[in-house]
Design brief:
mainly alpha; 4 domains; 14 helices; 7 strands
């Protein structure tokens, strides 16, 4: 018996009897799906290509007169006084912050109230940002670069001059020339006797955009006058043991250097006033190390040694009776208040006994003072204390 050819039903991928794959039909279907895939690829490829070209065209249109995105790198831009919005836009274009002055002006014109608040100064910007973002930075004070200077309490004039020169870049000679030859332009009170030492009030100041020596100094001297007026300094000084405003300022400058604890400052002022009022010429010598340090040109410490106390200088209160001829520092408001309102007490001496805490003992007799001084020496001798730069 001969075997005939197996019959395969057209359109079937498998033989219904044996389950074998019908290779002819499989190939037929595969060719069909391949054709469909190719057709879809052509269609989607065309859509993607056209879409990308449309997006590129939109982006080109969108960024023709403006940047988009977060920007590239930080940059500072200085806006001079009296600048118009168009002038500001030109400066921003020059710095590559924005792409078009016209676009920036359009943003500003749409927000006239905000535009009126834009002030001169130096601003933190970024290159290649939108005009909208650039304008937002100009009306946000946090992006304004502020050039500040801080005078610390107890600084002497020479230190303040060095600081002003360092911060502004103006040579120290220019500041010294103003202080020496143009003191009449500083707005000092009449009772200052034309001496600026002590009248540059310790505080933090914002420097002008284009500072000069006179303008920088006047920031501090003008503020001193404001504080003195607020304290009614002249009237109260005349009623105080100092007797006049200049003597009270000298006292405040010494107190500033001798104590940093406010309650003690009132007592320190009383000790010095008690000594000034003494009938004993020896007691009328204030023996303030702070004045001796000033006489020797010493900064960074108050303590002085026997050799330094031998200097022949009117500021050496170990050698000369009474107050020194002028302030030795720029005192704080707190020290000025202490000079005007000394504590009541019979003390003639004071000495710190712990330089870490500032604890100070006040005494009436020399024997009591010597006992307190021994406490200080013991503290300095204690190896557990950080005394290297203190004793």
């Amino acid at each position: 018996m001969t075997q005939g050819r197996r019959y395969t039903e057209p359109g079937k991928l498998r033989d219904p009897e044996t389950g074998e794959w019908n290779r002819k039909e499989v190939l037929h279907y595969a060719r069909g799906w391949a054709a469909v895939a190719v057709a879809l690829a052509v269609i989607f490829g065309g859509v993607w290509y056209g879409g990308s070209k449309a997006w590129d065209a939109w982006q080109a249109f969108r960024t023709q007169d403006d940047y988009v995105g977060p920007g590239l790198e930080d940059v500072e831009v200085k806006i001079p006084r009296g600048s118009t919005m168009r002038g500001i836009g030109d400066l921003l274009v020059q710095a590559d912050v924005i792409k078009s002055t016209d676009t920036f002006v359009g943003v500003a014109q749409a927000r006239p109230d905000d535009a009126a608040q834009v002030q001169a100064g130096t601003y933190k910007m970024r290159t290649q940002i939108s005009a909208q973002d650039a304008f937002a930075r100009l009306i946000d004070a946090s992006y304004l670069v502020r050039n500040m200077i801080q005078f610390r309490e107890g600084q002497r004039l020479s230190e303040q001059v060095a600081l002003m020169s360092e911060i502004t870049g103006i040579p120290a000679d220019q500041f010294n020339d103003v202080l020496t030859n143009r003191a009449g332009e500083l707005g000092l009170p009449d009772w200052a006797q034309g001496r600026p030492e002590g009248f540059l009030f310790p505080d933090t100041y914002e420097l002008p955009d284009e500072p000069d020596a006179l303008a920088v100094i006047r920031l501090a001297t003008t503020h001193f006058s404001t504080v003195a007026t607020d304290l009614d300094f002249v009237t109260k000084a005349e009623a105080s043991p100092a007797g006049d405003a200049y003597a009270a300022l000298i006292m405040a400058s010494i107190v500033e250097r001798e104590s940093s604890i406010q309650d003690d400052r009132y007592k320190v002022a009383r000790v010095f006033y008690n000594r000034l009022a003494s009938t004993d010429p020896t007691m009328r010598k204030l023996q303030s190390d702070a004045t001796v340090a000033y006489a020797n040109g010493i900064t960074g410490r108050v303590w002085t040694n026997d050799q330094e106390r031998e200097i022949d200088n009117p500021y050496n209160t170990y050698k000369h009776e009474g107050l020194p001829p002028g302030p030795i520092t720029s005192p704080s408001r707190a020290a000025m208040e202490a000079a005007l309102n000394p504590a009541e007490g019979p003390w003639m001496y004071f000495v710190p006994v712990n330089l870490n805490t500032g604890e100070t003992e006040f005494n009436v007799t020399y024997e009591e003072h010597q006992a307190s001084l021994n406490k200080l020496l013991a503290w300095c001798a204690d190896s557990s204390q950080d005394t290297e730069n203190k004793c």
